[in-house]
Amino acid sequence: TIMAIVYSKIAIGLLIAGISTLVFGTVLVFVGPIIIDEQIVKNTQINPQNELSYNMWKDIPVPFFMSVYFFNVVNPKEILLGEKPLVEQRGPYVYSEKRSKDNITFHTNKTVSFCEYRQYFFEESMSAGNESDVVTIPNMLVLGASVMLEKLPLPARLLISSTFTMFKEGPFVTKSVGELMWGYDSKLVDFLTAFFPDMVPIKGKFGLFAEFNNSNTGLFTVFTGQDDIRKVHKIDSWNGLKNVNYWNSDQCNMINGTAGQMWPPFLTTESTLPFYSPDACRSMELVYENPGMVKGIPVFRFVAPKTLFANGSDYHPNEGFCPCRQSGLLNVSSCRHKSPVFISHPHFYNADPALLATVNGLSPNKEDHSLFIDIHPETGIPMNVSVKLQLNLLIKEHPTSHIPQHPTASHIPHHPTSHIPQHPTSHSPQHPTSHSIPQCC
């Protein structure tokens, strides 16, 4: 009887404990997600009172790497005689990128302004060569100036054309990677800046990335999310502007999304990732592709839609970015001092096949040349990013130029680059006869 009483008490105790566990479990099922969401909201706001997350936003601890590939022109002399260009890809030349925010100012409307500065450091151990490697690429100065000659009076065109010969500048240039990246002395630049300062807004050495190092991308003002977490990181203005004036439609001139580093939390498969890129002078938007995992962390992959660089004929909303050429090229001359510059995916991936048919040595594929972001949907934090773009230069023969060129218009891919931010847990980083010569990527 005593044993029965003891077992009875134990059973009652276990029953009470079981019921309590069930109740606690039931409460946790409903309350747990709310608590977690509250913590996510708290830690994704831009708030100095949250020291850890604020410092991570201010000085991004994630390592960024920029990989640059040059397209070495194998047959420059033959190209001048009308042959199809042949190129070979060189690289990558890898640079670590240090990013930090400065001039941080909080405003009463729950926004914060800042400038983000960039510094680059060559990483020889991660590169397939060093900065002393020599490559031959199209001469951006000469070919760009040749196109821009069209808008100048005849005397000015003749004067500038004669300087090409005087300074021994031709349609191609052979330099080291370091010189092409960070600058080299050019008598042609000195002449043009002295007599035509509006034509070539360059002072000192000329280099593809000379203006990038130790520079900032403009004054961003973004929402802190303190009053509405759905707005966190979204841009309120850039350089004091709500819209830019580079393009020919209100839609194309809109400054949308974030600055491209973080997005609001609680993303779904119906979400998109809009962001404004000062380098591309426009807003862009990535779309959901599929779920995945990065180091055991669930992510959503967002990719560039095929319409991103489509021309206005193939995709009407892009009409405002015209004048357009083949799909796959974005004309950014309106924000690049009228120089004939176009942006595309590397190797003309997802572009009009007519572009690819004009040059030998390109092999576009999704794995190597697509643009994507793997992002943790609950927090809006990117876990793996591969932003790859190619800069292209339009060239064509001008009757007053002393530079022999093939008589058709040409797009010269200039330098596709890969900006690869890596999470701390990661250990890896219309003219069918025209010539499109890749220069570097």
From TrEMBL:
Keyword Membrane: yes
Topology class, membrane: Multi-pass membrane protein
Segments crossing the lipid bilayer: 12-36
A GO cellular component entry from the record: cytoplasm
Primary localization: membrane
A GO term, aspect molecular function: low-density lipoprotein particle binding
Domain of life: Eukaryota
Species: Electrophorus electricus
Protein name: Scavenger receptor class B member 1
